[in-house]
Structures are given as structure tokens and as C-alpha cells.
TrEMBL record:
GO terms for cellular component: cytosol. This is GAF domain-containing protein. Belongs to the free Met sulfoxide reductase family. Residues 31-159 form the GAF domain. GO terms for molecular function: L-methionine-(R)-S-oxide reductase activity. It comes from the Bacteria.
Amino acid sequence: MFEPTAYHASKEKNYQLLIKQLEALIEDEPDLIANLSNCSALLNQFLDDVNWVGYYLMKEDELVLGPFQGLPACVRIKVGSGVCGTAVSLKSTQRIEDVHAFPGHIACDANSKSEIVVPVMKDDQVIGVLDIDSPSLDRFDEIDQRYLEIFVQTLEKYI
């Protein structure tokens, strides 16, 4: 059972501030790539203990690398492959405690140990994913998932 603590309350307030910063950053900019670039930078600045933050975009039935912060990454991912492709095929967030235990994990960075992937939707179709990797096992919790989903839902309003 999840019990709120001072740490969790503070973490939630920080995420709420992040969402406000996101809206201020993208509300007047119609360009998707510019917004995804700034979203990646904002998350990379906000989140601790992460080694990759970015987007993959759907193009001709596969995910193609989009704006990101981190080391060079896999360029194309098939739907259903790896954590990102699974998020697309299931249309649901994937929060993975240990990527090396995930069947079919695609290792773009050998230092990544945990990952969260949130689908980006438009008109009930997945148009991309937000992908965040960490060099620590079990880095992402329920609060991260909830607020990263809100982050993506906020972004979706401006797509």
C-alpha cells in the first residue's frame, strides 16, 4: 500500500512545478520537434539519476529516434520490440525495474538498468513515446509514472 511521506509530497510538488514549466515552455510554440527538444532538455534537467531522456516518433510503422538528451541511441525500433516497442503495441506505460530481465530488451546503452516509456497519443493513435533510462535499478516509482504520464498528457494538448 502506498503511503505518502514528506519525501513523496515534496516529489509531487516538484513534478507539479515541472508541469507548469512545461506549459509555459510549449504553449506558444506550434513546432513539434522544437517542443520535444525542449521537453527532453527540461526533463533531463529536472530528473536525477537518469542517463537518457528523449522521444521516438512513429514513422511508417516503426519508431524512429527523435529529440533526446544523452548518448547516441538506437535509431529505429520495431513496434513490439524492446520496452519502447512494447509501449506502442500495448498503448500503455512500461515501467521496468531491471531492463536486463525484460524479454527482448534493446541495449542502446549498456549502463542503463531501469527504464520508463510513456506513449504519446493523438486521436487515440500512438505517435511516439517518451523514453527515460537510468543507470540504477528500480529508479522509477508510482509517483514518477503518474507525473510523467501527466507530463505527456500536457504535451499532447499542444500537438
